[in-house]
């Protein structure tokens, strides 16, 4: 399984989100399971409200000598990051690493979809030639992102877009694992369907959503299976999918 997280709160060095915590995403890349097929981080620079900016690699996060220095100096109040364990049959280039992007949206998928190549036909949602050619990579995650992006572009709110993707995909692939994570730099939408998902609030202005909690750190709440999480800097709502 992959691992991912999203953070909203006061601007801080990326290192405080990615590498410094004792059970950081960096550490989760090798324990408790190995996620060595790439990584990525997307953030929204606080200086000018621009973004998102992405840094993605097709190497294990621990082997990138540039990341520690970058994470120490780059700051943001909105971050989405992931480490990847590739689904068999998917591509291994850096474009296959989350986060995927569209406009101000960043997206990640933790899980796997069996026979994902046939998913559009099996869900009755064939992609156009332009959408297929526009896929970031040959992977289940990139395909789910294309389906999600279609809904966001049509004006569906982020929570509804993710919930609809989970329901549609699970109906065609009951054994699919579909933990999805989406942010526009102001809000976070996430689903738990098949793998674990947790969130933590701090100081009423900060929220972190992650695959796993930090052991021994207070304030983490587990999201129930088959649920949708909607979070802002000061609000959190969990509801059934």
TrEMBL record:
Keywords: Glutamine amidotransferase, Hydrolase. It comes from the Bacteria. CDD domains: YafJ (cd01908). NCBIfam families: ergothioneine biosynthesis protein EgtC (TIGR03442). Catalyzes the hydrolysis of the gamma-glutamyl amide bond of hercynyl-gamma-L-glutamyl-L-cysteine sulfoxide to produce hercynylcysteine sulfoxide, a step in the biosynthesis pathway of ergothioneine. InterPro entries: EgtC, EgtC-like, EgtC_Actinobacteria, Gamma-glu_amide_hydrolase, GATase_2_dom, Ntn_hydrolases_N. Pathway: Amino-acid biosynthesis; ergothioneine biosynthesis. Its EC number is 3.5.1.118. The gene is egtC. It catalyses: gamma-L-glutamyl-hercynylcysteine S-oxide + H2O = S-(hercyn-2-yl)-L-cysteine S-oxide + L-glutamate. Pfam families: GATase_4. The keyword ATP-binding does not apply. This is Gamma-glutamyl-hercynylcysteine sulfoxide hydrolase. Residues 2-241 form the Glutamine amidotransferase type-2 domain. The lineage of its organism: Bacteria, Bacillati, Actinomycetota, Actinomycetes, Kitasatosporales.
